[in-house]
Design brief:
The complex is a heterodimer of chains A (329) and B (530). Chain A is mostly helical and 329 residues long. Chain A has helices at 2-29, 34-39, 45-54, 61-73, 87-122, 127-141, 144-157, 190-195, 198-224, 227-234, 239-250, 252-276, 282-292, 295-323; strands at 161-164, 169-172. Chain B has helices at residues 4-15, 52-61, 109-120, 124-132, 155-159, 172-175, 242-250, 265-269, 300-309, 312-319, 353-363, 379-382, 384-394, 406-412, 460-471, 475-492; strands at 32-36, 66-68, 74-76, 79-84, 90-95, 133-140, 143-148, 192-194, 204-209, 233-237, 256-257, 274-277, 284-290, 326-327, 370-375, 399-404, 426-432, 495-501, 505-508, 511-512, 526-527. Chain B is globular. Classes of the chains: A mainly alpha (329), B alpha+beta (530). At the A-B interface, helix 2, helix 3, helix 5, helix 7 and helix 8 of A face helix 1, helix 7 and helix 14 of B.
Chain lengths: 329, 530
């Protein structure tokens, strides 16, 4: 197992190198000049040129790349052109909101999606199944920001004052139950921390629930057709035990796989969700950095996302062996 | 009546196991003003950058020697009294009593001269002033002199320049930082103190009321008068998404949105708890900028042809929409201000396509498409380029409108290459009107080789007129010279001013006292109740 993990970790190096070269080239070839942005709107061409030279952007591309990659290998991720902080500092400052949002989303999504998928599989063809699949299609189809704004409108802005017919009275349910935006660190109080994560987590979880519940359903349905399930039923085991202990456990590998793959969705979703809910995390840092052409930040953030993605897939591979003892590395 | 916090607690209770929650919410100051600016504040040196968000940050923590009041008259601010010698060459300034830096040190004359020196290296109006300055002399701790080589008409206008780059006063040790390096310490003598430890760039910037600040005794007016702080704390919250800004304002999570987009104004005005405030009555002005160094706009007749095709109202309708937020105005130096003459400006107000085609024919325009850069990421500018395309095409031009994000526009506009080799011919921008009030502060008029803004016009006659304006000390003659500058720009087709527009801010109704000024300032603002 350890040899496998070591092999896989070493195998990430060429992936990261490829990502580094690709991102570096892409950023340099895309129109846009951080020096012009830094210089400000009233700057003259000479001032822009001076800043470009100071940032090292006048050097040939390969020189810039070797200087940058050498520094990264030495643990120096550089300094943001705009924030005047090291990229490492910026990432450390922004990692908690993103990590917490991702964690809450994963917990929420998995705890809803897997039971929904199992339920749909158990009631295959029935109205529950259709409802779950309908939700799943909707979850895939509606963009994350639309879900976000709708949830904000319903739970954070709309006053829930419902007129009661024929009585002339209004039932005031309050409304505005949840905050529209912002993030509070756990250190600032757990209540404030969690209440601000509810809507963003639901927003981000919708697409994830859609994906995982669909795969869970398909996988459990496939397993339910296996001979050992028929045997289990023939032995007189209760339907719930057959479903949860035999079918679900054996359907776990594709479900775990899709949870891993879904991390990519989560990363994409975080970028949008953090903007909609004004969460100062890595996603918003990425957007701000891209808009400002803050090359050092974009490069490191994308490298980091790639590394996280590779790492999570490694963890998923390791998890297979726990659910299916036949898998050995 | 169920309060919002109770409702939220109920939701929490339902969502989580009771007892696991420790509502250790951070205690908030009683009166915290939460403000969302029009952009992210990333650079904290208002002399180093012209970014308006940084200028606004500057007004919170720094003070100025002079400041413009609501009617744009320059009034003393840190200065107690000033004298001008009979030959108009020596200006003596005495500082007010009791001025103190945030670190407890007294403000001294040497701090002010160091600050002016640094500012003069970055700001065009400062550079112009310092062309006339023979020396800055510290007389004593509270008095300094500006000694000129020859009389200069804009000494006070320069020291009281309202917008970027504003001559903010800093302690000498900070002001001695190279003007092309950013300062690393944010100590001012202004009405608020910046809280470096509590501020997180990209999230929020925190300012506390300066308890030792001594406001002037005059009532606050524009950027002048007594800067009386009525809140304990100001938080500039970074919130780039405009829809989220509107939502947060509606939900009462923030108190002020400096510049909500025009399309969200009807949504905000529907809510009784929101008030729109026209804090910047001068507004902004759209600009069309030609590239003078490449064909075909290297030919003044072609530039004039383009100006003849223009009509301001088309731009304003397409970008702003509601007529109460725009003004058709032929004055380059802004209607309603001392230099705001509309003479000659009529060519920008009504299209004359026939004249445009005639001028193009005279110029020998060969029909090569001109490259028009369209920014798609600054909402207020997005619709300007399609209007230009339509108008110029009616005027006989062929137009290749290329869409790109604003950062690409700001990069590409630095290129002097021909348009078909990565350069450009024409693009749009806008400016805060306060930056455009005279021929010296309005950088679009600069036509001296090497000192011009993008587009690079060179016109010795224009520079002669600008110099004459700078030297003139009589306001009547200054106005006459400003008019000549405007007419010269229209004669050569240097650039076009294509309409004034206004963007009100939005505030919660419990927030009052937002002063009318070209800059959003947060003294005088009071916040009561919820």
């Amino acid at each position: 197992m350890f040899a496998f993990i070591a092999r896989r970790l070493v195998a990430t190096l060429p992936v990261l190198l490829f990502v580094a070269i690709f991102v570096f080239m892409l950023l340099r070839l895309t129109p846009g000049d951080p020096a012009a942005v830094i210089a400000g709107d009233n700057a003259t061409s000479d001032q822009v040129d001076a800043i470009r030279a100071k940032l090292g952007l006048e050097e040939p591309l390969h020189t810039q790349f070797f200087i940058w990659s050498g520094k990264v290998l030495a643990g120096d991720f550089g300094e943001s052109f705009f924030f005047k902080k090291t990229v490492a500092e910026l990432i450390i400052q922004r990692i908690e909101p993103t990590a917490m949002l991702a964690l809450c989303t994963l917990l929420l999504a998995v705890s809803i999606a897997v039971p929904l998928g199992v339920l749909a599989a158990a009631k295959q063809g029935g109205w529950v199944d259709r409802l779950v699949m309908g939700f799943s299609v909707m979850g895939f189809s509606v963009p994350v920001f639309v879900v976000g704004y709708l949830l904000i409108y319903v739970f954070a802005i709309l006053p829930w004052e419902i007129p009661i017919p024929w009585t002339g009275t209004v039932l005031d349910l309050g409304g505005q139950w949840l905050p529209v935006q912002g993030y509070r660190r756990i250190s600032e109080g757990f209540g404030d921390f969690i209440i601000r994560l509810i809507l963003p987590s639901i927003t981000l979880a919708v697409i994830y629930i859609a994906l995982v519940s669909r795969i869970t359903r398909a996988s459990v349905i496939e397993t339910l057709g296996e001979d050992y399930i028929r045997t289990a039923r023939a032995k007189g085991l209760p339907a719930r035990t057959v479903l949860l202990r035999h079918a679900l456990r054996n359907a776990a590998v594709p479900i775990i796989t899709v949870i891993g793959i879904g991390i990519a969705l989560l990363i994409g979703g975080v970028v949008v969700t953090e903007s909609v809910y004004n969460i100062p995390g890595i996603g918003r840092l990425t957007v701000d950095a891209v808009l400002a052409r803050d090359f050092p930040v974009i490069q490191v953030v994308i490298l980091m996302f790639s590394f996280v993605y590779v790492l999570i897939n490694l963890l998923i591979d390791i998890a297979y062996s726990f659910f299916d003892p036949r898998i050995r590395y | 009546m169920i309060t919002k916090s109770t409702r939220r607690a109920v939701v929490l209770g339902a969502a989580l196991v009771a007892g696991t929650l420790a509502f250790g919410a951070v205690a908030q100051a009683q009166s915290t003003l939460r403000v969302v600016q029009h952009g992210n504040l990333t650079i904290l040196d208002p002399v180093w950058t012209t970014a308006y968000v940084t200028r606004n940050h500057g007004y919170l923590i720094y003070d100025t020697l002079f400041a413009a009041d609501e009617k744009f008259a320059i009034k003393p601010q840190m200065v107690d009294k000033h004298e001008v010698s009979a030959d108009k060459l020596t200006w003596t300034f005495t500082l007010r009593d009791g001025l103190e830096w945030h670190d407890g040190q007294p403000v001294k004359a040497e701090d002010c001269t160091a600050s002016l020196n640094r500012w003069s290296k970055r700001d065009p109006m400062g550079q112009k002033l310092f062309d006339f300055v023979k020396e800055l002399k510290v007389i004593n701790d509270k008095t300094f002199q500006i000694v000129l080589k020859e009389p200069y008409g804009l000494v006070l206008d320069s020291l009281g320049k309202p917008s970027s780059n504003t001559p903010f006063m800093m302690p000498k040790r900070i002001a001695e930082t190279d003007a092309f390096q950013q300062i690393k310490e944010y100590v001012g003598s202004g009405p608020f103190i910046y809280q470096t430890a509590q501020s997180k760039p990209g999230e929020r910037h925190v300012y506390l009321k300066n308890p030792k600040y001594k406001p002037r005794s005059e009532p606050a007016s524009g950027l002048a008068g007594g800067k009386v702080v009525k809140v304990d704390r100001v938080e500039l919250i970074e919130m780039p998404d405009t829809q989220t800004q509107a939502n947060a304002l509606l939900a009462g999570e923030i108190d002020i949105v400096e510049a909500p987009p025009h399309d969200l104004l009807p949504v905000l005005t529907k809510d009784k708890s929101i008030v729109l405030d026209d804090w910047n009555p001068l507004g902004h002005v759209f600009v069309i900028r030609f590239n003078h160094v490449v064909k075909p706009f290297d030919n003044p007749k072609v530039r004039l042809a383009a100006l003849h095709a223009i009509n301001q109202e088309d731009y304003l309708k397409a970008t702003i929409g509601d007529a109460k937020y725009y003004k058709v105005c032929g004055a380059a130096f802004i209607c309603g201000t001392p230099n705001g003459t509309e003479k000659g400006g009529e060519i920008l107000i009504k299209s004359n396509f026939e004249k445009s085609r005639e001028l193009l024919k005279e110029a020998g325009y060969d029909g090569t498409p001109i490259v028009l850069m369209q920014s798609t990421t600054l909402p207020v500018l997005t619709n300007t380029a399609p209007v230009t395309k339509a108008l110029l095409e009616q005027g006989g031009f062929k137009v290749d409108m290329q869409s790109m994000d604003w950062q690409t526009v700001v990069t590409r506009r630095t290129k002097k290459d021909p348009a078909d080799k990565g350069g450009w011919n024409v693009f749009h921008t806008y400016s805060v009107s306060a930056d455009a009030l005279n021929p010296i502060s309005n950088s679009y008029f600069v036509a001296a080789d090497g000192k011009q803004w993008f587009g690079w016009p060179v016109d010795a006659e224009m520079e002669k007129l600008r110099d004459a304006y700078a030297r003139e000390t009589d306001p009547v003659k200054q106005k006459d010279l400003a008019e000549k500058v405007q007419l010269r720009a229209l004669e050569t087709g240097q650039f076009g001013w294509i309409g004034q527009w206004y963007g009100p801010g939005a505030r919660r109704s419990n927030v009052t006292g937002w002063l009318k000024a070209p800059i959003p300032v947060f003294w005088n603002i009071e916040k009561t109740g919820k």
